[in-house]
Amino acid sequence: MESSKKYKSVIVPRKGPPDVMEIVENELRAPLPGEARIRILACCVCLPDVQARYGLSPFVPKFPFVPGYAIVGIVDALGEGVHSVAVGDRVAALTRLGGYAEYIYLAQQKLFPVPATLDPAEAVALILNYIVAFQSLHRSAKVNAGDAVLLIGASGGCGTAFLDLGRLAGLKMYGLASASKHSILAEYGAIPIDYHSQDFVEVIRRMEPGGLAAVFDGMGGDYVRRGFPLLRRGGKWVSYGNPLSVKGTLRLLAQLFWLSLLPNGRSATGYGTAFYEFNKRPFLEDWPKLFQLLEEGRIRPVIMRRFPILEAAQANQLLESGQVIGNLILLAPELLERAERAG
Each residue of 27-63: pLDDT tens digit? Predict the structure, then answer.
């Protein structure tokens, strides 16, 4: 009987460092009406996972919880009334929670198709990091070829997505990162700025006296106040980092609102994947564009390391070390074995 089968997931039972995470067994039940059971092939490991574990999130999940913000998987079983997907389909979902597991149960409206030709490890990077970068660039800031832009936090999963898509868009890019990570910025043609030893405001004023077309801020804090004057008239500041608390979110939104009221033609806005819950249409339009770019070889996510799904704690520890360039991906065992054989 199916009810006697088990699957494993990684839970966060309480606030704390990566070693609080535990592997637990769960009953592999049949899907409920309207939902599908997905065998997870790949899940990204991202900063929101870490922030949720430490309770540093505007809406902290109830403990215990299974982290995992975005997944790619295969439809394994269907509940009654599910007609939009079929068993065996390759699908993806922006889950927010639940991805650190061998299986996940999701409502059919949360699922969208992924080309079976794509590497799941690369595809899952598009579900979160690349959608943030793509929509920040093209929906929020509406960049044009030749625009000079600044990337604050330019070397992680989101940062390298901005670099990849920014090069494709023909942007002149400046990027803030520690000196040890400058090589990845140079690979994409970006001009690196070491935030430890250089004043980014002074560098940009010298290099771009006419001002920047846009700034993409994944760090928050004092960067908004210091960097906003670097925008040219009509320039756009886009903040996409997690403000870490409800109070922090309200403070950031108020700051962006008042900056946008200044009579200098500059504007500021916040971007977050939370918008997906209110309006899925832009996401469902943009993910296929990203899949096509990946299929055509025009973009390629930087993957620093792949881990087995159940080694999520080790992946989180590496992410928190501050040494990560690009993405960390959790994979189903057979995909990890295939990747290791390939290289």
Answer: 999 999 999 999 999 999 999 999 999 998 777 899 9
CATH classification of the domain holding 71: 3.90.180.10
d(CA 22, CA 10): 6
Give the pLDDT of residue 1.
41
Cα dist. 82→30, 88, 119 in Å? 13, 14, 26
Whether residue 245 has pLDDT greater than 80:
no
Q: Count of domains in the chain?
A: 2
Amino acid at 290: L
Return d(Cα 241, Cα 261) in angstroms, integer: 22
Instruction: Give pLDDT tens digits for 262-272.
Output: 657 788 888 88
- Residue 341 — very low, low, confident or very high, per pLDDT cuts 50/70/90? confident
Task: Measure the CA–CA gap between 272 and 136, rounded to whole angstroms.
Answer: 9
> How far apart are alpha carbons 269 and 144 in whole angstroms?
18
Cα–chain center distance at 152: 15
Q: Phi first, then psi: what are they for 330, rounded to 5°?
A: -95, 135
Residues 283/291, Cβ–Cβ less than 8 Å: no
194 with 235, same domain: the answer is: yes
Amino acid at residue number 119? D
User: Which pLDDT value is given to residue 243?
Assistant: 56
Domain match, 77 and 201 both = no
Please write the tens of the pLDDT for every residue from 320-332. 999 999 999 999 9
Dist CA 218 CA 318 (whole Å): 19
Q: Please give the pLDDT value at position 60.
A: 82
**318: containing domain:** 2-114+302-342
Partners of residue 306 on adjacent β-strands: 329
- Give yes or no: residues 257 and 155 share one domain: yes
